[in-house]
Task: structure prediction
Amino acid sequence: MSTSYSMGSKRENYIEWDDYFMALALLSSKRSKDPVTQVGACIVDNEKRIVAIGYNGLPRNCHDDDFPWCKPSDLNSADPLNNKKLYVVHAEANAILNRNCASLEGMKLYSTLFPCNECSKLIIQSGIKYVYYISDKYSQKSSYLAAKRMFDAVGITYTRMKPKQNRIVIDFADILEEDQQESINIESLKI
Result:
């Protein structure tokens, strides 16, 4: 005996995997307190499971108001310690450190900005094999050229991603409104 079920059509405008993971990296970047460059990163295994997320910020237990968020040139400061670069942990490094698995071997990293040479060393050491990024705004700086040179030397594939969707909107109000309407519907059934 065969049972037939009537199934509606699936929704067609869902987010594709690469856009989804890059959107998570972008959402993570919104946690950064850096006034100039907010970067987010998301690491994904071969089963499309998220194993880590990170953003650029100060190390754990370092209070955001106790450290500089600028470069010395921004303030015309003679104090070499007044430089955010000395204190900020990059998004890719934070993601690697925040991972919820033992090994990142063969995994993909999605980053809103192409990784610098320091993060690239960590990416290589961790075993990540694919890097997807959106922005490469520092592409001519030596630390980013060095990163590409190292990636090329060890066979890490890096790809500038062009998202299929230019815009993904997160709107809490829609869900809250829907929830409120459902509560009203349930209350009307009780009467």
In short: The first helix runs from residue 17 to 29. The helical segments are 17-29, 72-75, 91-97, 117-126, 142-154, 172-190. The chain has six helices and five strands.
